[in-house]
Specification:
Strand content: 5-15%
Number of helices: 8
Strand order of the largest sheet: 4-5-6-7
Shape: elongated
Number of domains: 3
Helix content: 40-55%
Order of helices and strands: EHEHEHHHEEEEHHH
């Protein structure tokens, strides 16, 4: 309530924006670091977009501001909105039903990255955010970051499985050739070639989906290997 102060400092994505906005609705005093002074301005900017923050200050002025605010007389108490109480209950893990969830959010066809349950889009805005009945909550930016990581990991797992199948097909082709089964050998070689094409497509997708810095490092590493081959590799000579 009005006897409390909350602040958002430097950070990536928009974590804390919704919490700070609800904090202000409950009568609290809100503070955020000046975005131009922040190493990562995303979180302060997210807080600014989500509500009318009471105070902002550069990093070297925040301590003095907090001392000043805690010395002021608190304002009158404000009733906590029912929807905020409900979200606190969800965050604490208290069991609620689907009908209760509908009072603050609408289900959407997106699964929760943490538990796989159905996410619901919170009606209050901004920021755009989602919550599942178990208690996991995400802003749209945080959810996008989680999803991107999951897609990248899935692609890498798929690439590993395909490359293993290529190796297995090659060995099966060699075995069939040694046993005099020409048709089986040819079929396994075709399967191996198809697998190489699939693997190359996935590899390009992985590099293309990586951030520019990561993609650049991958390209630099490839060039370095080409220019400075492994002396222990017999084929490098």
């Amino acid at each position: 309530g009005p006897r409390s102060v909350a602040g958002v400092l430097t950070g990536l994505l928009n974590d804390g924006a919704a919490g700070l906005a609800d904090f202000k609705r409950c009568g609290g005093v809100t503070v955020f670091q000046n975005p131009s002074d922040a190493v990562a301005p995303d979180m302060p900017m997210g807080a600014l977009r989500a509500s009318d923050v009471d105070y902002r200050a550069p990093l070297d002025g925040l301590a003095a501001l907090l001392v000043e605010l805690t010395g002021e007389e608190a304002g009158p108490p404000i009733p906590v909105p029912a929807e905020i109480r409900l979200e606190v209950d969800i965050a604490f893990g208290r069991q609620i039903g689907s009908e209760t969830m509908l009072t603050i959010a609408n289900p959407v066809p997106i699964s929760c990255p943490a538990c796989g349950g159905v996410l619901s889009q919170i009606k209050s805005w901004p920021p755009l955010r989602f919550r599942c009945q178990v208690g996991h909550a995400y802003t749209s930016e945080a959810l996008a970051a989680e999803s991107e990581g999951a897609v990248d990991e899935t692609l890498r797992v798929a690439l590993r499985i395909i490359e293993e199948r290529v190796t297995l097909s090659e060995k099966m082709a060699q075995d069939a050739h040694r046993s005099g089964f020409a048709a089986a050998a040819a079929a396994n070689r075709r399967r191996a070639n198809e697998g190489r094409e699939y693997a190359e497509t996935l590899r390009r997708a992985i590099i293309g989906s990586a951030p520019e810095a990561t993609a650049g490092k991958l390209e630099d590493a490839s060039l370095a290997v080409a220019k400075h081959p492994d002396p222990t590799d017999p084929e490098s000579s």
